[in-house]
From TrEMBL:
It comes from Granulicella arctica. SMART domains: PKS_KR. Its EC number is 1.1.1.47. Keywords: Oxidoreductase. NCBIfam families: PRK07231.1. Residues 8-189 form the Ketoreductase domain. This is Glucose 1-dehydrogenase. The keyword Oxidoreductase applies.
Amino acid sequence: MAGRLAGKVAIVTGSGSGIGQAIAERLAQEGADAVIDYRDHPEGAEATKAKIETAGGKAILVKADISKLADSQNLVEQAWQQLGRCDILVNNAGIEKNAAFWDVTEADYDAVLGVNLKGAFFLTQAFVRKLRDAKQPGRVINISSVHEDMVFPNFSTYCASKGGMRMVMRNLAVELGPLGITVNNIAPGAINTPINTSLLADKPKLNALLANIPLGRLGEPGDVASLAAFLASDEAGYVTGSTYVVDGGLMRNYHEQ
């Protein structure tokens, strides 16, 4: 397929639904071959693959729990073995646990930090090692959150993971720049995805949130995917070390009720 990303290969973690699915589809539309990662729901990943192939793109499925190093390393290896290269990594997979700080369990802490921060950290390491050895440039795009900067009561583990992701991104932009590898974060606000199903069903809560969003609507996965496509492309070749907020203005207007 022709496009800005023709000849490139992209790994998108958690690409069986929501933002990850939209990003995988968009990068494929731009010409990239896609590595679709999933942990628990192969049917969603299969749907992503089918959409990409219907549009004329190429995609492979790899099951990986990125909180496990062996899975992360295999995910990168499969990209190189099956598709011959890997140029773009989108660290999208993420989970959250709702609990007052004094009720947070070690298991919940380990689950959230294991996927959101440790997972992204070591998957990026595996991705970068292959590029370094091949002497090729690359793109790392982290799907962070407005909560890398904005408080979110009862989600302390999630905020810790995203705050950590912001600092790792800044550090890696400096460390990896000499290798020609850019590193940036996209920080979505309230996006219409499965993770927000309960919010969408709670009309008073939803309306209160919408009142805090200057653009007056939730974001769509495509709002994030279009920015990811730009950051993955040569057009963003001089862009690194930054967080790009996609939140309809929420962060600038937010206040706890």
